[in-house]
Amino acid sequence: MAVTSIANNRANIDHYEERVDMACAFRWAVKYNLHEAVANHFSLAVNEDGTQFLMNPNQRHFSRIRASDLLLLDANDPSSMEGEDAPDPTAWGLHGSIHRQCPHARCVMHVHSIHATVLASLADSRLPAIDQNSAMFFDRVVVDNNYGGLAFEEEGQRCASMLQDPKIKVMVMGNHGVLVIGHSAADAFNRLYYFERATENYIRALQTGQPLRYLSDEIASKTADEIENYPQQADRHMVEMKAILDDEGSNYRD
Questions:
Q1: Is 149 left (phi over 0), alpha (psi -120 to 50) or beta?
Q2: Could you give the CA distance from residue 114 to residue 108 in angstroms, rounded to a whole number?
Q3: Predicted structure pTM score
Q4: What is the mean pLDDT of residues 52-76?
Q5: What domains sit in the chain, N to C, each tagged with a CATH number?
């Protein structure tokens, strides 16, 4: 993308840098195979109380989403659903409810990624600490066992009620998929990436049929705290993802 074009976008589009980070996250969700056709949604709050948020337009493939494509919605204004490319009712029901009730959930990413969804399909959908990746989620995951069909307003409100504790960063949505939250697009996407890797390691370990080597709660908790406070990991991940897209000549910044 030309430098002059980038400069014009920065001047003419509200929340431009946030849009760029979100567009980058969508593109890398495809590269990491976290996406599902034209379903699933990411959202990012842009005002203080979290009720105004950016979200992908309805049924746009993640690989094509650009910064300027993102919709600016208001969780307290149902007329947001009347605009062009308005998100589908399930996106509004889930993300709108969370942004309305959980101001600490600045960024919300929901996908049906393969291994996290396999975990969500097990009778016991908890993720035990068996390695460093899974340990980083110790005591930070909640499991929703009440899948009731598509995530309209009622399910969105129920999910939001389970995310009130700011320590909870991930919701395993039983029989459905996974939802992660973060304080920024970089934070949420980094967490989404590592949760999928952690669940893949766990599922593959189960497939061996051999006994698992579990970490103690003490070590798992210590590891989770250390990783959460590790300097700039999520931000650096985002910087590198954007650099790779820029090197490829991607139009995600448009």
A1: left
A2: 18
A3: 0.93
A4: 96
A5: 3-247 (3.40.225.10)
